């Protein structure tokens, strides 16, 4: 088993590819995949509640959604990319996103077992300039997010925006 496989031997990439297939299928079948449905999966409800808290701008409200050992992976080659480990690093990342006025509008949520796949529109308001679709894979354990992996629909646009919005500190202070 590699580090990108869970205990069942299923790769995260495979799960997320399958989940993105659910996005297309769910949207075709229902037309409004994000609408509340009878018998809603509890992990979908958890992520809806998470997005409500995120939209409030109060980072302390987000703490209750995260496992202590959360891993949040941001793709790309920019100052905010990489894997954030633990609640404090994840909240520090969100604090930086808040400086750019990031917003999210959920389009689709689907669950299978411990995973929730989310498709949403994400955009910046300070400065304006990034407005793309994002897909996230959330892994849930004991009603907490233990892992999130982001996928940008246009990684080049995301990288360009983050380099413009988040300048590196000058040397040598950056290395201290």
Strands, helices and their partners?
Elements: H1 12-30, H2 42-56, H3 59-62, E1 66-74, E2 82-85, H4 86-99, E3 103-112, E4 115-125, E5 128-141, E6 144-152, H5 155-165
Parallel strand pairs: 1-6
Antiparallel strand pairs: 1-2, 3-4, 4-5, 5-6
Keywords:
about 180 residues, alpha+beta, Nuclear Transport Factor 2, Chain: A, six-stranded mixed sheet, 5 helices, about 35% helix, globular, SnoaL-like domain-containing protein
Structure described in brief:
This is SnoaL-like domain-containing protein. This protein has helices at residues 12-30, 42-56, 59-62, 86-99, 155-165; strands at residues 66-74, 82-85, 103-112, 115-125, 128-141, 144-152.
Structure report:
By secondary structure, the chain is α+β, with helices and mostly antiparallel strands. It has a single domain, classed as Nuclear Transport Factor 2, Chain: A, CATH 3.10.450.50. Helices cover 36% and strands 32% of the residues. It has 5 helices and 6 strands. It has helices spanning 12-30, 42-56, 59-62, 86-99, 155-165; strands spanning 66-74, 82-85, 103-112, 115-125, 128-141, 144-152. Strands 2-1-6-5-4-3 form a 6-stranded mixed sheet, sandwiched between helices. The longest helix is centred in the first third of the chain and has 19 residues, at 12-30. The model is unreliable at 1-36 (pLDDT under 50).
């Amino acid at each position: 088993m590699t580090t990108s496989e869970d205990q069942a031997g299923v790769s995260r990439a495979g799960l997320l590819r399958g989940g993105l297939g659910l996005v297309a299928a769910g949207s075709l079948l229902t037309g409004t995949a994000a609408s509340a449905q009878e018998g809603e999966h509890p992990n979908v409800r958890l992520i809806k509640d998470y997005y409500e808290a995120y939209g409030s701008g109060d980072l302390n409200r987000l703490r209750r959604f995260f496992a202590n050992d959360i891993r949040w992976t941001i793709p790309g080659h920019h100052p905010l990319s990489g894997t954030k480990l633990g609640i404090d690093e994840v909240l520090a990342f969100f604090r930086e996103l808040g400086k750019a006025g990031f917003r999210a509008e959920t389009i689709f949520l689907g669950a299978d077992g411990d995973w929730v796949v989310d498709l949403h529109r994400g955009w910046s308001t300070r400065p304006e300039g990034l407005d793309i679709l994002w897909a996230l894979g959330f892994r849930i354990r004991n009603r907490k997010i233990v892992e999130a992996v982001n996928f940008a629909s246009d990684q080049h646009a995301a990288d360009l925006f983050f380099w413009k919005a988040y300048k590196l500190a000058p040397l040598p202070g950056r290395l201290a």
